[in-house]
């Protein structure tokens, strides 16, 4: 990794994290409602019966309302569990699913693990991001789990990154291993990116 790109990524992540922390509880709650609406519409658009999603942290756009609603509709939702080898494992979300602190202090499901290849069966992937640019390049939070997962899938389904509206930007720093996404979902809109075809 070039030091210049690494420094640019770290600076942008720090700025975005700080902006997210400044959001009020009311703005966060409103964003969560909007995001649930957008994500459910996306699932309907793709006719998805199985999706992967992530349990949001306190500073991320809130995904838990969507997960509850999707499970209640009968959609199979896989949630990621981080592993020390850099791969993601997966567990099925349930209505009363227990949540614990994972490897990096992130919220993760407690339950039977299905293995890293379980994600190959989903119709749609919903992943976290710090920012996404207009070409579809995603800036993650620096651990590479989702880039590695997407890059290793033979028949990768559509991948949508969840961001706040202001995090859809003109350009993000990128490296060879960074994976593009199909589109973004924000609390107010869903955008399929031109590079996705």
UniProtKB/TrEMBL annotation:
Annotated keywords: ATP-binding, Ligase, Magnesium, Metal-binding, Nucleotide-binding
Q: Which superkingdom does the taxonomy of this entry point to?
A: Bacteria
**MF term (GO), any:** ATP binding
EC nos: 6.3.3.2
Note whether Metal-binding occurs among the keywords: yes
Give the GO biological process terms.
Answer: folic acid-containing compound biosynthetic process; tetrahydrofolate interconversion
**What does the record give as cofactor?**
Mg(2+)
Catalytic activity as recorded in UniProt: (6S)-5-formyl-5,6,7,8-tetrahydrofolate + ATP = (6R)-5,10-methenyltetrahydrofolate + ADP + phosphate
Tell me the Pfam families matching this sequence: 5-FTHF_cyc-lig
Q: Extract the Gene3D superfamilies matched here.
A: NagB/RpiA/CoA transferase-like
Q: Does the keyword Magnesium apply?
A: yes
Task: List, alphabetically, the InterPro entries matched.
Answer: FTHF_cligase (IPR002698), FTHF_cligase-like_sf (IPR024185), NagB/RpiA_transferase-like (IPR037171)
SUPFAM superfamilies for the chain: NagB/RpiA/CoA transferase-like (SSF100950)
Q: What class of enzyme is it?
A: ligase
Q: Which family does it belong to?
A: Belongs to the 5-formyltetrahydrofolate cyclo-ligase family.
The protein's name is: 5-formyltetrahydrofolate cyclo-ligase
